[in-house]
Amino acid sequence: MIIDHIGIVVRSVEKGIEHWEKAFGYRQITNIIENSRQKVKVVFLEKKGSLTVKLIEPVDDTSPIYIFAKKGGGLHHLCFKCNEIESELKRLQSLGMRKLHGPEPGEAFNDNNIAFVYAKQGLNIELIDTDTKAGRLNSKEK
Asked: Considering the domain boundaries, does residue 133 fall inside one?
């Protein structure tokens, strides 16, 4: 497995994009995508030679991240790309990690499956098995 991106909860993806561009030199690489299942809006940002960042905003007060965003947000998860979600999920569960969600279609990944586990170190881990990012602004770049 390799790290695909880090997920950061923000109150506003638009303000988050502006902040990450000005403060850290990142640039937006996807349109803002609304994930109706998780009740969030997400956008991916990149910077050459660095990890991809996914900004996550709750769409309303029923979103699972609403309270976290209201408190200011911050690091939400590390996302690992693996070869096959189902087998990786079983392996991680055998190591004591707790399945939180999925596998289920992830709208930010053109409905390729995603899953979440809770790691012993207090981290949320997202699993994907695709390079696809929905709404990519420039399909030639990754």
From this structure: no
User: Which range of residues forms the domain containing residue 30?
Assistant: 2-128
State the total domains in the chain: 1
Q: Which residues, in sequence order, are bridge partners of residue 115?
A: 127
Cβ contact 43:18 at 8 Å:
no
For 96-114, how does the pLDDT look when each residue is reduced to its tens digit (9 = 90+)? Answer: 999 998 899 988 898 899 9
Q: How many helices (H) and strands (E) does the chain have?
A: 3, 9
Half-sphere exposure of residue 47: CA atoms within 13 angstroms, side-chain side: 13
Within-domain flag for 140: no
Q: What is the pLDDT of residues 38-72, one digit of tens each?
A: 899 999 999 999 999 999 999 999 999 999 999 99
Encoded amino acid at 71, one letter: K
Strands 74-81 and 124-128: what pairing?
parallel
Question: Please, which residues bridge with residue 33 across strands?
Answer: 42
State the pLDDT at residue 25. Answer: 97
